[in-house]
TrEMBL record:
Record-given protein name: Alpha/beta hydrolase
InterPro entries from the UniProt entry: AB_hydrolase_fold
Length: 392
């Protein structure tokens, strides 16, 4: 019976964001086995190319680009909003120039809408959901940023009348602004279902209306954009060195140069966790744990679970510290290696084709754009459903 799960974090993580992720893992573990003890392995604060197999580790490598689905369009829109939370409002302002006179009651509705928008900062319905994740301060900052923005004022002024499309744009801008703040603070991102729930609740609090997530102007713009987005994702072989340009590459580069200290720290924590340990390793933590378990025999580690990890890719290009390309995993490496990847997470890779017979891959879909998708694994019910039989 599994007694302990040791959580090894990834690149760029420090105490605040580690605690946020650990809380989500603890919740997931409790849902499938309340008896498991979660132990920390916070190494960040203290320690903080040719494709040899023709891209076998890369999800959707050279995948054909199908017709652009509504799901792809939505992902493309949220990717744009991740870069610019006010994008949709600017587009609304540019595409809905009013003509003729505005009725007095429409002017009143517009003024009321801006007041309602500012009031989202202290709206009890929304704060109830926000407070569950301890994000009140970030939410209030996001509302203030959007409500005081010229883009919001221009979008409202340009509208001939207040309708669901305008309310949706304002609500989505607030949630996108919240997500941007979470990324800046290196905190857990919003799962797609919660993100969409907040958007819909925001629309309701702004006056409601018939909600169509894709108005004509959004669809027309995103058809081409979504196709280009999907095409770029399918052509990731051009960017084999993509990880070197990631925003949190510092930990990765440090690990590659002087990773022994991180591995020693993880090994010490393993030794303090008893005889039945499962390691949960995210991102760079997955690389470090694979290296460690190759270099040393740690029989108390019964299974390795990697999420969003680059270890298979590092092996494929000959950059895995502990194992040269074409060398095999040693017999003492844990017999159970479960690897999760998300095709929207450009820092996740498949292990089963690279380490045939030694790893099992499971695809999950967050519905979030990169880089938010890289931090979303612990909120996915399908991940915990997959792990449940292995954590009894």
């Amino acid at each position: 019976m599994v007694k302990t799960v040791l959580f090894v974090h990834g690149t760029g993580v420090r105490k605040l964001s580690y605690e946020s992720s650990a809380a989500r893992i603890a919740k997931g573990l409790h849902s499938i086995n309340p008896g498991i003890r979660l132990e920390p392995c916070l190494w960040g604060d203290a320690h903080g190319a040719r494709l040899g197999m023709n891209g076998a580790s890369i999800p959707e490598f050279k995948a054909p680009v199908a017709a652009v689905s509504e799901e792809t369009q939505m992902e493309a829109l949220w990717e744009l909003l991740a870069q610019d939370a006010l994008f949709e409002l600017r587009e609304l302002a540019a595409s809905r120039k009013p003509g003729g006179l505005v009725a007095p009651h429409d002017k009143i509705d517009k003024a009321k809408l801006l007041t309602q928008l500012a009031a989202l900062e202290t709206n009890a319905t929304l704060l109830t959901r926000i407070q569950e994740r301890a994000l009140t301060a970030q939410w209030q900052q996001a509302v203030r940023a959007v409500a005081s923005s010229q883009a919001a004022k221009d979008a409202v002024e340009a509208a001939s009348r207040v309708d669901a499309t305008l309310r949706l744009g304002l609500s989505r801008a607030v949630v996108a602004s919240l997500q941007a703040r979470l990324l800046e603070d290196n905190m857990a991102v919003l799962p797609a279902p919660l993100r969409d729930e907040l958007v819909k609740k925001g629309v309701d609090e702004l006056g409601g209306g018939e909600l169509n997530l894709f108005t004509d102007w959004v669809t027309s713009k995103l058809k081409g954009l979504g196709l280009r987005w999907a095409t770029a994702k399918a052509k990731r072989e051009r960017d084999a060195l993509y990880t070197a340009a990631a925003p949190t590459a510092g930990d990765v580069l440090l690990y590659q140069a002087r990773g022994a200290g991180i591995r020693d720290f993880i090994a010490e924590r393993v030794g303090q966790c008893g005889d039945d340990v499962v390691i949960f390793a995210h991102s760079l933590g997955g690389i470090a744990c694979v290296d460690l378990l190759i270099e040393r025999s740690l029989p108390q580690v019964k299974a390795l679970v990697t999420v969003g990890s680059q270890a298979p890719f590092m092996y494929e290009i000959g950059a895995l510290t502990s194992l040269a390309y074409e060398e095999q995993l040693p017999p003492h490496f844990p017999s159970k290696w479960i690897n999760f990847y998300d095709c929207n997470d450009l820092l996740s890779y498949m292990a089963s084709k690279v380490f045939a017979g030694r790893a099992t891959d499971h695809e999950v879909r967050s519905g979030l754009p990169f880089p938010m998708s890289h931090s979303a694994y612990w909120d996915m019910p399908e991940l915990w459903q997959t792990l449940a039989p292995h954590l009894k």
